[in-house]
Specification:
- The protein folds into three domains: about 1-50, no CATH class; about 50-90, no CATH class; about 95-169, no CATH class.
- Helices cover about 25% and strands about 10% of the residues.
- The chain contains five helices and seven strands.
- The longest helix has 15 residues, at about 15-30.
- The radius of gyration is 23 Å and the shape is extended.
- It starts with a helix and ends in a 6-residue tail after the last strand.
Length: about 170
């Protein structure tokens, strides 16, 4: 793509610059710079879709508390930044937590398959495999129903736990 753009007489960028611009455009937008006639040069569906996880107390979002938010993988962030991230988010996952213990109470799901939002909430809660003494990361573990689904076990936070592949047998 960069080579074909480089052959356009009006193009002023070097081949190296075009390659860098094409790679950046593919990553960010999923398509590269348009052809001279304005049509896209590729039909790749989309670029990078980052997911930023921020836990913010609802009272902080409402402006009634200055309790810090928590940016996943970073740590506490000031309430103003947490509010701005929440306001600018294209989507969000509601996770109802207990106001005193921060325990996840509900994500409003009752199906066998663990929905993505509950999956993320469980990973935040569990951090590691829940088998006593195991320190394997929850992100590399399976989610197990403590009371099996076939035996009336529910798909909710109280009945689910991360178990690494070794302990999930």
């Amino acid at each position: 793509a960069a080579r074909s753009l480089h052959e356009v007489p009006e193009e002023q960028r070097t081949l190296g610059q075009l390659r860098a611009d094409v790679a950046t455009a593919l990553l960010l937008d999923g398509e590269i710079v348009a052809r001279p006639d304005g049509s896209p040069a590729t039909a790749i569906p989309r670029g990078i879709r980052p997911r930023v996880s921020v836990t913010v107390p609802v009272m902080t979002l409402l402006g009634r508390s200055d309790e810090a938010g928590v940016l996943d993988g970073y740590g506490p962030i000031d309430p103003t930044t947490a509010r701005r991230l929440a306001a600018d988010a294209p989507s969000f996952t509601r996770i109802l937590t207990h106001p005193e213990t921060s325990a996840v109470l509900s994500v409003g799901r009752t199906t066998y398959r663990v929905p993505a939002d509950l999956h993320r909430a469980l990973a935040t809660r569990d951090v590691t495999c829940r088998f006593p003494g195991c320190t394997r990361s929850a992100t590399d573990s399976d989610i197990d129903h403590s009371t099996e689904w076939q035996r009336q076990g529910r798909t909710d936070a109280d009945n689910l736990a991360h178990l690494c592949r070794h302990h999930h047998r």
